[in-house]
Amino acid sequence: MILIDTTVLIDALRNHNQRRGLLEAWVLRGEQLATSAMNVAEIYSGCRPREEVMTRALLAGLVRYAITPEIAERAGLMKAALMQAGQTRSIADMMVAATALEHGMEFATDNVKDFQLPGLKLIQLP
Predict the structure, then answer these.
(1) Count of domains observed in the chain
(2) 8 near 66, Cβ under 8 Å?
(3) What is the pLDDT of residue 81?
(4) For the chain (length 126 residues), average pLDDT per consecutive 10?
(5) Distance CA 20, CA 107 (A)
(6) Of 23, 28, 104, 112, which has the highest C-beta tally within 10 A?
(7) pTM assigned to the model
(8) Can you tell me the distance from the alpha carbon of 85 to that of 20, in angstroms, rounded to the nearest whole number?
(9) Residue 107: which domain range?
(10) Which CATH number characterizes residue 51's domain?
(11) Residues 10-18: contacts with CB within 8 Å, 24+ apart?
C-alpha cells in the first residue's frame, strides 16, 4: 500500500508531472493507494471551485486513514524529537508521516526534504 501525499494528489488533479499516469500505473500494478485525513483537509483547503467534482472522485478511489490517538501521539513525539535536534517540521507533515509509519506504508511525496525520517519508506518519484 502506498500513502499519497498532498503534493502528488494536487499534481494528479491538475495533471502536472504526469502524476495521473503514475497513479494509474500503480493501480494497474496492483498497488492499493491511500491517503490520510490530514491530506484530505489540505486538498480541500486549496481546492478550486471547478476542481471539486474531480477532487471528490479522486479521493473516493483512495483508502483514507483517520488520525487516531496513536498516530497523533507518534506525530507529536516525532516533532518534539526533531525540534530537540534543531529541525522544524509542521505538525501536519508529522501527522501524515505518522500515518504511513503506523500502517507500514510506503510514502509518495514531492516534498522529500521534509520527510527524511527514520523508518519512513519514501518512493522515488519520476
Answers:
(1) 1
(2) no
(3) 97
(4) 97 94 97 98 94 95 98 98 97 98 97 95 94
(5) 16
(6) 23
(7) 0.94
(8) 37
(9) 2-122
(10) 3.40.50.1010
(11) 10/43, 10/46, 11/110, 12/58, 13/43, 13/51, 13/54, 13/55, 13/58, 14/51, 17/110, 17/125, 17/126, 18/126
